[in-house]
Amino acid sequence: MAALLMPLAASAQQAFLLPRAQLEINNVAIQAEVAATDASRSYGLMNRMSLPENQGMLFVFDQVAAPCFWMKNTPLPLSIAFIDPKGTISNIADMQPLSLDAHCPTAPVLYALEMEQGWFARHDIKAGDKVKNLP
Q: According to DSSP H, which parts of the chain are helical?
């Protein structure tokens, strides 16, 4: 029975191996996992305990909208930047671990970028700044 379960476990892990994008904001390079499917966007950074420096997750939506985010099952404190189709950050919010509090964009967006909490502030990145190399 154990031999039969091993391939299933391996395929479940591979289902969430996401493509990566090399982004840039204010001359700071970011390595971002790209969540561009319903399944990968729903799972997001759940169950992660840490992120390496300058790494995060870029959520790519099918159309411009105002998606809200919460932190259920996410123990890592995160900051999120909401990004319009032209790559301009509309707003940034800090999100508390394991919370159901909603964090929403102030304008319609096509992207959202999650980084470890405080990352944007440490790099003096704020609303109005541009994100380069978006997919």
A: 2-14, 38-43, 119-122
Tell me how far apart the alpha carbons of residues 115 and 74 are, in angstroms, rounded to a whole number.
13
The structure tokens 């790519």 sit at: 60
79 and 95 Cβ atoms separated by less than 8 Å: yes
Q: Is residue 50 predicted with pLDDT exceeding 60?
A: yes
Rounded to 5 degrees, what angle do the CA atoms 25, 119, 114 make? Answer: 75
Over residues 101-116, mean pLDDT: 98
Per the CB < 8 A criterion, the answer to whether 97 and 75 are in contact is: yes
Whether the pTM exceeds 0.85: the reply is: yes
Q: What is the distance between the alpha carbons of residues 85 and 97, in angstroms, rounded to a whole number? A: 28
Q: What is the pLDDT of residue 17?
A: 84
CA distance 107 to 123: 23
